[in-house]
């Protein structure tokens, strides 16, 4: 569990950290995508699409929940 605690602390350090992590994962994805044979690209696209939606939707749900919570706690401007 120490590994997961360290990962939590690392990811929560700043938005820049998450941005760099996303760029890194994107670059790896592009490199892997270039290695997939042409006849297997549809399968790879399908699997990656399912993984993307399965991870992106929960991230955005959590993000919008935080935004709504912050906007409801914000003082009204006159």
Overview of the structural elements:
There is one protein chain. With 78 residues, the chain is mostly helical. It has three helices and no strands. It has helices spanning 2-11, 15-35, 41-73. It starts with a helix and ends in a 5-residue tail after the last helix. The model has no long low-confidence stretch (mean pLDDT 82).
Total DSSP helices: 3
Oligomeric state, counting identical vs distinct chains: single chain
Task: Tell me what portion of residues adopts beta-strand conformation.
Answer: under 5%
Report mean pLDDT, rounded to a whole number: 82
Largest sheet: none
Please provide a brief summary of the model.
The protein has 78 residues and is mainly α. The protein has helices at residues 2-11, 15-35, 41-73.
Jot down its keywords.
elongated; 82% helix; mainly alpha; 0% strand; single chain; 78 residues
SSE blueprint:
Layout: H1 2-11, H2 15-35, H3 41-73
């Amino acid at each position: 569990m120490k590994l997961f605690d360290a990962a939590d602390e690392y990811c929560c350090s700043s938005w820049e950290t998450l941005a760099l992590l996303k760029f890194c994962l994107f670059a790896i994805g592009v490199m892997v995508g270039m290695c997939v044979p042409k006849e297997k690209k549809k399968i790879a696209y399908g699997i990656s699409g399912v993984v993307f939606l399965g991870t992106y939707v929960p991230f955005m749900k959590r993000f919008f929940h935080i935004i709504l919570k912050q906007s409801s706690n914000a003082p009204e401007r006159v």
